[in-house]
Amino acid sequence: MAETGTGQEAPASALPHFEPPRFQALRSILALVLREMGSTYGRSPGGYIWAILQPIGALAVMSVAFSAVLRSPSLGTSFILFYATGFLPFGGYGEVQRKTTSALRYSKSLLAYPRVTWLDAILSRLVLAVLTRVTVGCIVFTGILMFVDTRAVLSIGPILNATAMAASIGLGVGMMNCLLNGLLPIWSSIWSIITAPLFLASGVFFLYEDMPSFAQDILWWNPILHAVGLMRRGFYPTYEASYVSLFYGYGLSATLILLALIFLRRHHKRVLEN
């Protein structure tokens, strides 16, 4: 109860009551997404055009280089489609991983506002990274299928599954790196050394089945290889990719995300301070 000007107490119902805005988290995430779109792609010449031209240029170089020494790719008749089905899911993982790793540091100044949480910062970068890579992938694959005789038969289920798996792996690894970079500053250097051969070990240039058995036993534990196998299954109907394990790919991602959520909730302020 509060006192009125006459000395009497006013009922609680008469006091002004401020409710939090509806969909507060969604508003915060959308605002952070728009902010990063402007800062990341709006300031550089070309903006989003470079996000499309970079994978196209990389695929063109790989296709020309390998077609000069190989008669045909390991699957199908098109070098550029074969490498695209490996390069794009790997690039999607890398984009999500990099964005979420630096999410708290990037939005540090905005986290001083009570309506912006550390989880909003991570989710906003996840949303923008996924939207960007899906858009780029659609444009690149559409261009390849329109202008190159690939003889591909699309299966949407495995393609969407591969996209979701690559994004979930990138989110889990990125959140854990975000935590470890804040608690152990040397971790970023260690991680760069550990993952130096990851591009070669993710099946971008080869098929898992073409590797010797001792290499298969090691490479199977690379979750990105499973996403690449799923993507190729979606373009090549005769390719079974029997080694792919949805349980392992999504299970590892869920475990990393859960652990990161638990520890970031407790230590996110310490991560921001470092």
Structural commentary:
The longest helix has 30 residues, at 118-147. The protein is an all-alpha fold and 274 residues long. A two-stranded antiparallel sheet has the order 1-2. It has eleven helices and two strands. Helix 3 (79-101) crosses helix 10.
Summed up, what is this model?
The chain is mainly alpha-helical. It contains eleven helices and two strands; from the N terminus they run E-E-H-H-H-H-H-H-H-H-H-H-H.
Write out key terms for the chains shown.
mainly alpha; 274 residues; single chain; 11 helices
Overall strand count: 2
Radius of gyration: 23 Å
Regions with little confidence, pLDDT below 50 for 5+ residues: none
List the secondary-structure elements in sequence, H or E.
EEHHHHHHHHHHH
- What gap, in angstroms, lies between the N and C termini? 45 Å
Main beta-sheet strand count, sense and barrel state: 2 strands, antiparallel
Assign the structural class, choosing from mainly alpha, mainly beta, alpha/beta, alpha+beta, or little secondary structure.
Answer: mainly alpha
